[in-house]
Write a structure and sequence with these properties.
The protein is α+β, with helices and mostly antiparallel strands. It is 26% helix and 39% strand. The chain has four helices and twelve strands. It has helices at 2-49, 141-144, 210-218, 237-243; strands at residues 54-61, 64-66, 69-71, 79-81, 95-102, 109-119, 122-128, 166-180, 183-193, 199-208, 224-234, 245-255. The strands form two sheets. Strands 1, 2, 3, 4, 5, 6 and 7 form a seven-stranded mixed β-sheet that branches.
Length: 257
Amino acid sequence: MIFKNTKRARALGIAAVCALTLAIVFAGGVACKKGAESAAGQAAQEKMTTIQEGLNEFQGTVKVASTKYLYIPEIQGMDVLVQGMSDLASLEGKAVKVVGDFNRERPSLLVANTIEAQEEGGYQSVFTRTEEPDFSDYVDLKDRTAYPALKIVNVNKTDAWEGKTLGKVFGKLQKQTVTEGAASKDMYRLAVNDDNGKLAGYVILDQFSDYSVYYLKKLRLFDSFWFYLNIRSTVEAKARVKTKDLFHADAACIGLF
């Protein structure tokens, strides 16, 4: 009886040691895998975000090409200014190599000096900058602080915007085709709600900067944005009551915050 019990205890002890060994090996494998994944993720993140003062070289796929700006996800948090390329839209969807200049005075912008696009047979040069960059319509995060949020309540509370030259409004862009004489044109209005979610009125957008047109396309998956406005003239009182059109403005910038 004692022999049988000893034999059984020895077998159980061996099984326990084997199970413990397997657990250690498995845990080690999982830890190594997680470590490798973490290192790979960190390396990919560093590859995507490493931008230095002066010249930088990177490659990626163009997701948005509009007016004079490119959006390339591989260069996170940055827009690429391409000065003087007339067929910029042809780059959309293509793999590119870009050499560009970064200046900390414009922390979200890279100025392209050369661009190569992937074609059959390899990368081909498609752009070399020959003009000085035009930053007149570029609005960075620091510049946005000059645009106070407008608290628009209704068509009669004109003090929300009158007397101001700059302001920002959160709303949804609407497009309407209107006829003037024998010609038709597109009219853009920004629907603005009050604090209770009810329509307070419309801002008539007369012009869009190149930068705002680019951001409309870049943020196409969203339907409402912050519009940074250069305020122009107030709509006449009688027309305001009838149409809920509040004032005219130009869109300088568009963003999610």
